[in-house]
Amino acid sequence: MNESKRVEIAWPGLDITVRADLDQRNAALAQCLWDALPYRSLQGHALVAGYHLYHLAPSHSLLYTSAEYRVDRRTVPDGTLFCSRLQHLGIKYGELTEPMMATPIGQVLEEDLPALVRAGREVWDSVYTTKKPVVAEVRRAGEPSGHRVPRLPISDPLLNELVGEVHAETERIWLDPPQELVDLHQGRIRSGAGSYETVLTTLLFVNGETRPLGYSCYGGLVRAALDGMPMPWLRQMTRQLAHTPAEFLGYCGLDTLWGFTQRLLDGLDRIDSQEDYISVMAHMALYCNCLGGWNLHLFPWEAGDHLRRETVPV
Q1: How many CA atoms does the CB half-sphere of 69 hold within 13 Å?
Q2: Of the candidates 83, 110, 140, which is a domain's last residue?
Q3: Percent of the chain whose predicted confidence (pLDDT) is above 90
């Protein structure tokens, strides 16, 4: 165990703190997390996979840092920490059903596992029922809490201005829900989206478009650039992948996202270097992933409480 790589994960609103040691299974990913500390983030909970916590970490490098070791999440001990290219810090605290290969970076101390289980149950209640946000604080052990969203430089002045605004908006909504999503979830939809005045249908489609826009589109474009895709192809793929979902989300009420996207697409031909391209797309990924986290928190999951899984014979 390396004392210099011990972290504390606290949920002050729950009065719960657990300690974890980062290890060498995926040393580069663990370093990404270590370099991002300290930070605060809206705590989320898996909605399909089982007893699993995750939140967004403010680290651009998680989008592309390679993993050395992968494991089926179902097979590792409770308390295992994971980092992923979705910019998540995940923590298993019980049974998982999804057969997903994941990249472990550390382990919660054995004596803190009961506290982790309590946190998991409280966070589930927050996400599924009460909608009262739970904030996670992640810090190096023995050091103070804090928070920052890193800002990447862009050489082109106009795109640098855009990225500055995206960065500022990401910081603004990091721990406070964006008003556009609050309005949407309360049925205030200026465009009239939602056939026969329905709201749940619109919320479902917004969730279905927001998450892949950050995870797959912008995160994937960052990795494609680092893999050497030529700039003309990158520009073309950006136009193909980003325009339609962002336009739809703008129609549903996410005007800020659609405005940023239009300015990005208008300025694509100004990007001459892969470094600038990666920086712009990384900021868009983090912003979209932040929107996705809030949408998952605000979504009225309890509306489906009458639908319960039945035991299926194997």
Answers
A1: 14
A2: 140
A3: 96
